[in-house]
C-alpha cells in the first residue's frame, strides 16, 4: 500500500492503537465488548470509563489467560481537566489500585486559557509524578481544538519539564480532534523522548497512517476494527 511506511506491519500499527470506549452512555456490555475487541486485535491498550476499571481488570485477566499484552487504561480529569488537583490525584490512586497501568490526564483548560502557566504546570506535574510513583504510564491531553498555537507551545514546554510519557491532542469530546497541524507542532516542540498521541477523528486506515507518518506513536480511536480490518484487506498477502 503506497501510504504505508516500509517498516509497517499489522503488529506495528495495532500496537500504536489505544482502543477507546469513553462515551458516557456506554453500557457495561459495550465496555466488556471493547475489552474483547482490544484483545482480538492485539492493540496497545483499552481505554475505558474510570468506574469500570476494576471489572475491566478482571475481564482482561480472563481473556486469553491474560497473555495478550493489552494494557488497561483510563482517564483522569475527563473531559475538561477542571477538577482540583487533589481530585485528580485521588483518581490516580483509585485507578492504579484497581489495575490501570496507563492514565490519560486532561490539562486544566481553564488554567491554560487564563495563561496561568505556573498553576497549570503544577497540576500536570503533580499528576505525572503520582502516576509515575504507581508505575503507570501517563499521557497529558491538551485539547488542541480549543487552543492557539502559542498555548500548545506553552504546554509542550511544561511537559518537557515534567516529563510525561506522551502528550495527546484531544479527548474527542470537544467538537474537534487531532489535526495534522497540531500533531506536527507537538512532535516538533516536544522532547524526542516524549511520545505524541493523536486522538479524535481517526476513523479510517489512511488517517491513521497519516498521523503515524507525522510522528504519532499512539493513536486514540474507537474505530479500531475498521482501521485494522482495512490493513489486513489491503496490505496482507
Brief summary of the model shown:
Helices cover 46% and strands 16% of the residues.
Question: Would you kindly provide a written description of the structure presented here, covering whatever features stand out?
Answer:
The chain is an alpha/beta fold and 237 residues long. It has one domain: TIM Barrel (Alpha-Beta Barrel). The protein is built from 10 helices and 8 strands. An 8-stranded parallel β-barrel has the order 1-2-3-4-5-6-7-8, surrounded by 6 helices. Helix 4 packs parallel to helix 6 and helix 6 crosses helix 7. It starts with 9 loop residues before the first helix and ends with a helix.
List keywords for this structure.
237 residues; alpha/beta; TIM Barrel; 8-stranded parallel β-barrel; 10 helices; 8 strands; globular
Amino acid at each position: 500500500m503506497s501510504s504505508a511506511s516500509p517498516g509497517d506491519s499489522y503488529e506495528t500499527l495495532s500496537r500504536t492503537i489505544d482502543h477507546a470506549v469513553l462515551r458516557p452512555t456506554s453500557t457495561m456490555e459495550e465496555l466488556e465488548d471493547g475489552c474483547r475487541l482490544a484483545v482480538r486485535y492485539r492493540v496497545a491498550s483499552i481505554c475505558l470509563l474510570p468506574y469500570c476499571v476494576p471489572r475491566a481488570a478482571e475481564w482482561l485477566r480472563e481473556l486469553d489467560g491474560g497473555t495478550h499484552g493489552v494494557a488497561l487504561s483510563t482517564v483522569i480529569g475527563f473531559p475538561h481537566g477542571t477538577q482540583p488537583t487533589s481530585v485528580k490525584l485521588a483518581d490516580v490512586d483509585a485507578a492504579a489500585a484497581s489495575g490501570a497501568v496507563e492514565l490519560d490526564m486532561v490539562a486544566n483548560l481553564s488554567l491554560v486559557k487564563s495563561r496561568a502557566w505556573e498553576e497549570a504546570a503544577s497540576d500536570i506535574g503533580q499528576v505525572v509524578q503520582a502516576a509515575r510513583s504507581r508505575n503507570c504510564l501517563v499521557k497529558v491531553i491538551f485539547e488542541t481544538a480549543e487552543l492557539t498555537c502559542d498555548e500548545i507551545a506553552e504546554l509542550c514546554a511544561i511537559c518537557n519539564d515534567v516529563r510525561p510519557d506522551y502528550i495527546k491532542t484531544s479527548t474527542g469530546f470537544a467538537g474537534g480532534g487531532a489535526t495534522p497541524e497540531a500533531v506536527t507542532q507537538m512532535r516538533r516542540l516536544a522532547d524526542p523522548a516524549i511520545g505524541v498521541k493523536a486522538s479524535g477523528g481517526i476513523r479510517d486506515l489512511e488517517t491513521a497512517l497519516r498521523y503515524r507518518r507525522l510522528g504519532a506513536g499512539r493513536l486514540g480511536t474507537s474505530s479500531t476494527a475498521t482501521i485494522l480490518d482495512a490493513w489486513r484487506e489491503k496490505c496482507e498477502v
